[in-house]
# Entry
Amino acid sequence: MKKYSFDFSDIDVLRSYFKFQLDPNGTSDRIYFPPEIGEGFLCYYKISPEVFLFINNYRAHVDIEYIRKPIAEKDIILHFRKYALDHQIKENEIVSSYSENYTPGNMRCMDAQQGERVYITKGADVKSIMIVLKSEYTKPYFIKSSDMAEKVDSYIRYSHQDINKFYLSYKQSILFDQIVNPNFNKVENYLFFIARGIRLLETFWKDVLMWDTASNPFNINSAQVGNIYKVSSYLESNLHEPFVGVDRLASMAHMSRTNFFNMFKEIHNKTPLEFFNNKKLESSYNMIFTEGLSVKEVMDNLNYSNSSKFRKAFFNRFDLYPDINI
# Structure
C-alpha cells in the first residue's frame, strides 16, 4: 500500500509534495501518476490567496492511503465527487473507504480542523474536486452574519451524517465534468479551471442558504436520485415509443408526481417531456448526418407523424433543416 501524509495549510507546499512523490520531472500543470501507482493526474490551482482548487482524475493501480492531517485554522473543505465513499466519524478524524456503491455524484463539507484517513483500493476510479476555503476567506461572511456561520456549521455536520442524501444539481454536475474531464485540445490555460471553480463555489453558497428550506438537498436520498437516472435511461431506450407521461414515470421511480418532476428538472435542467423530445432530436440528427438515413426513415424509426412539426423542432434545436427528400 502506498501512503501519503499531508495537510491543506499551503497549496504550494502540497503541490510540491505530490509533484516530488509522483511526477518530479513533469512540466505541465497536471501531476501524473507513475504507472506502478496509478493512471491519471492531480491538479492544484490557487483561485485566490484564500481559495484553493484541487482536481483528482485517476485509476489506482495499487491500494492507497491518504492521511490528511488536521490544521489549527478553521478552514472549510468542499469535496465534490462522482465516486462513492463510506464514512466513519471518529473523535479526531474521519475514516473514509472507497465503495463500489452507485453514486451519481455528491458533495460533502468538512472542517479542516478534523483530520481524515482515506483508503482507495486498487482498481478504483477517483474523480473529484476539492475546494479549500481558508478561514481568511470565510471570516467576513461570518462577521456580517452569525446566522451564516451557524448554517455552515450545521451544513458540515449534516453533509457527513446524511452524505447519501446529497446530490449534485445539473449545474454542479456540468461544471464538475468540465473541470475533471476537460477537452485538453481546447483548454488554453489554468484560467479555464479557475473560472469554473469559482462558479462551482457559488453553487455551494446558494445551497447553504437554501438547505433548510423546502429545497433541502438532505431530504433526498441517493436511491431516489438513482431512480431518476433509471427513468432517464428508460426514456433514452424508448425514443421510438410515445411519451408515457409524468405519472407513469413517477410510478417507475417510486416517487410522488411532484417530487419526481421537480427532482428530474433539477438534475437534468429539463422537464421529462423536454428531456425525451431533446433526446429524440439528437437521435434523429445522428441518424440523418451520421448514418445517412432519409427523413422519412428517421420519422418512421422515432415515431414522428408530422413532417412540418419535426422539421421546425429540428431547426429550433440545431439551427438547420434536415434533408427534405422524404
Remarks:
- The mean pLDDT is 87.
- The CA atoms of residues 200 and 206 lie 10 Å apart.
- The two ends are 63 Å apart (CA to CA).
- The domain at 2-218 is CATH 2.60.120.10 (Jelly Rolls).
